[in-house]
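Budget justification, computational time. The allocation requested in the original proposal was used primarily to generate structure tokens for proteins on the priority list. As evidence of use, we reproduce two of the resulting records. The first is shown immediately below.
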Amino acid sequence: MESPRVEQLFDFRRLPTDGFLLALLVLYTPFGICLMLLRIFIGIHVFLVSSALPDSLLRRIIVRAMCSILGMFVSQNNCRQRDKNVKTYISNHVTQFDHNMLSFLTPCHTPLLEGQSGFVSWARGYLELGWMDNRTRLAEALRHYNSLERAQPLLLFPEDETTNGKVGLLKFSSWPFTVDSTVQPMVLTVKRPFISVSVVESSWVAELLWMFFIPFTVYQVRWLPSMSQMDEESEEEFTVRVQERLAVELGVVSTQHTKSDKAEYLKRMKHPAPQAVNSANSHPPAARARTFLPGLSISSLSAEDVRITGMAKQVKEVLPHIPLSVIKMDLVNTKCVDTTITNLLEGRVQFTPEEVSASPSSTSLSSHPHLAPCDSITSVKKAPMDARAAKPVTKATFEKSPVDRHLSLHERKEALYAYARRRYIEKHGLQPQSEDSQDGQH
């Protein structure tokens, strides 16, 4: 099965696109608002009850019953598959309340990985162990927690981010599988009418209010047999095996996209390159609409592409005989103008020279009666592998000041033209003083 694009793993709009469903939602809205206000009042009581009662089976039954009034339902299948000796549960991640709903089925704790600590994390039901910015230290803390005699099982989400649960799983992080060598996988699906179950960059408060607004949200859990790390199997291989098992059970694709890929995609969507925005604005409105995702301003050209193009133009000014595509390809790897110029001059990059017309920068060469500008450029073009004479002016870093960058480029140009003159003089057997006079005139 073809791997989906990263944007297909998430929902970017809350409301339905189907006209019939949208009309029903509009008719339902007055009732939904009244229901939301009532459920906010009830939700405060649910929070107080859950905070006052000690953690026990009775508390879970009472809170689960009260949550059903809030429209939050949870059910489970294959309960016999649950292994009570396992202390680490692994699940896919769909909403910001997955850990709360799953804790109604079995006592478990989920560590806080990001967000506000203190009262907010406690109120949301997270286990706060610290080390949010260091997964290795967090895994050590969780291993110590699991070693405690009366510690409740851990519920971990290796995707580290919520998805829509429709087409694929994010690549599992391996750190949850360093906590315990035996885990209990569970498959989670979430359904609700009219609107999406989760939307990109929506806060947990907004998600909670939408949950109160909608008639109901159903969480369904299916337990899978416990899985253990085999002998000579690395933690990464164990991670992949569990991910593939969950993907098969969900009927989705096991992708290589990560949480970082999502963040990078959203960054590109929110901050389109200026040149791309101008290009998009020059298109007709209908054409522009096809290039934007619902609710986001996007561009197919990223800021990195613009930066590479600008750097390629600088290299092209110094080495006009080298194809722009070759320059860009090397810049993608080096990210440095001077390093790319050095690679091209020293023959580390193979290319077919382009025909270059005379430029204003080369008019100073025309002062010699036997040396035409095109001849000098052709000399450079035919022997790029021997252009090491220009190497002393190459710098290892890209200057920060625009003035210094201009001088650096000017020095490289002068060195290349000087090399071309020497090649021409050697080829035609001219007198050395002619070369000296040329340098003086230049």
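The second record produced under the same allocation is shown here.
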Amino acid sequence: MADKREYRMEELARLAGITVRTLRFYRERKLIPPPRREGRIAWYDDHHLARLRTISAMLERGHTLNGIAELAEALDQGRDVADLLGVDDPTEEEPVRLTPEELAARFEGHVTPENLAAAMELGYLGTDGDEIVHISRRLLDVSSALAREGIPLAEVLAVAGRVREHADALAALFTDLVLRHGPEEDLQRLRPLARSVVEAELSLALDRRQRKQGQDLS
């Protein structure tokens, strides 16, 4: 394993493309974590460099320093990725790793401390060093697509919480049904059948809702 690289303040500032004065300012504003001290010498590492590059990228996208500080605080207080994904829990979902600026680019204008906190509370987001991990590529793609359509991300996340409640209830129905008639091993083998039922019923429900909307407008 490669040794962890560390930098003096001047080298870190040069690599990040900022001045030493700006670096000191960011440190005073607590936009970056404190360095490791060795006597009077401050040592920074690749986590500090990644955070500085993230700050620069987000400033270029129009975020203010106050907003970046609030986002950094929300991320620093976020759930660890190990808690988010579990260790041996099986899943069909593909986690996605993102830098903070990549997340900001996907949800242009929607990345706020409140939305981050809501996504973390739902268990959608976790942190791994300077990276953000989304628990499901499918959910990430859908939520970002809805945000691009002009639907506020806060409302998308609120609806997601309600969908979670219904999904938990459906999962409980399917689990109880299978376990009444077979061993626990059948749950994994038969879960594609449960998914097909839910997808078909949702499709039919959307058909009914669209017909009702059309009748109400006519």
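A brief technical remark on that second record: The chain has a mean pLDDT of 86.
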